[in-house]
Amino acid sequence: MTDLLRYETELLASGFHAIAGTDEAGRGPLAGPVVAAAVILHPGQLIPGVTDSKKLSPQQREKLFPMIMAEARAVAVGICDHNEIDKLNILRASLEAMGRAVTALPVVADYVLIDGTFSLSLELPQQTIIKGDSLSLSIAAASIIAKVTRDRLMEEYDLLYPGYGFAQHKGYPTAPHRAAIVRLGPCPIHRRSFKGCLKL
Questions:
Q1: Is residue 199 scored above 70 in pLDDT?
Q2: pLDDT band (50, 70, 90) for residue 198
Q3: Which end of the chain is less enclosed by CB atoms within 10 A, N or C?
Q4: Tally of structural domains, the chain
Q5: Sheet containing 34-40: which strands, arranged edge to edge?
Q6: How many CB atoms lie within 10 A of CB 163?
Q7: How confident is the model at residue 152 (pLDDT cuts 50, 70, 90)?
Q8: Which residues contact 12 (CB under 8 A, 6 or more apart)?
Q9: Does 9 fall in a domain?
Q10: Is residue 174 part of a domain?
């Protein structure tokens, strides 16, 4: 766990005080928004169990979500919906969502750690980290907040647009989801710019 604080510890030693980690969830689905989160931890703070959200079960993520919300110094979410994804493309929408999350933080960040290889259009010092959700605790915390938030949104969409199975696959291109698109056609939250979203 301590290794996950390496980036944050080095930055704190360099004089930064509010280091935000940011990550997104939902680049691959055929439907719904891309959701990003940003998290600022207290200096040296450890939250047991926090790691890359993809390594956790839904139950583990749901358990950690309120802990992060309650214990972190600051948390915020940024969202780009399906229309913005179609307009911008998924990469730009993902970066935009992360930028929105950082900007929405109730504590102003003075440094940003970003999961991935692309920087954000923010006037802040920042660092991209490949597989950052496995290497930085603040990014890992953000990955959990983003994933749980998006999953909950897709469960709500399942009630609005029954028949697609959004509560189960969360919009990802599973065989049942593809079959539902063929059977029903795309619904209003499908990403029209994605292959597989048009009725075959």
A1: no
A2: low
A3: C
A4: 1
A5: 74-80, 34-40, 19-25, 111-115, 126-129
A6: 10
A7: very high
A8: 19, 43, 44
A9: yes
A10: no
The CATH number covering residue 113 comes to: 3.30.420.10
Q: 58-83, pLDDT tens digit by residue?
A: 999 999 999 999 999 999 999 999 99
Percent of the chain clearing pLDDT 90 (strictly above): 94
What's residue 200's pLDDT? 43
Compute the distance between CA of residue 159 and CA of residue 153 in angstroms, rounded to an integer.
Answer: 10
Mean predicted lDDT score pLDDT of the chain: 95
39 lies in which domain range?
2-150
**What separation in angstroms does the CA of 92 have from each of 85, 95, 99, 188?**
8, 5, 10, 21
Q: Say if 14 falls within a structural domain.
A: yes
* Cα dihedral 94, 24, 74, 62 sign: positive
Distance CA 142, CA 193 (A): 27
- Asked, for residue 185, whether it belongs to a domain, the answer is no
Candidates 49, 157, 139, 44; CA nearest to 101 is: 139
What's at 171, amino acid-wise?
Answer: G
- Contact indicator for 146, 164 with CB cutoff of 8 Å: no
CA distance 74 to 87: 30
Task: Give CB contacts under 8 A, 24+ apart, made by 41-46.
Answer: 41/8, 41/72, 41/73, 41/137, 41/138, 41/141, 42/72, 42/73, 43/8, 43/12, 44/5, 44/9, 44/12, 45/71, 45/72, 45/73, 45/137, 46/1, 46/2, 46/5, 46/137
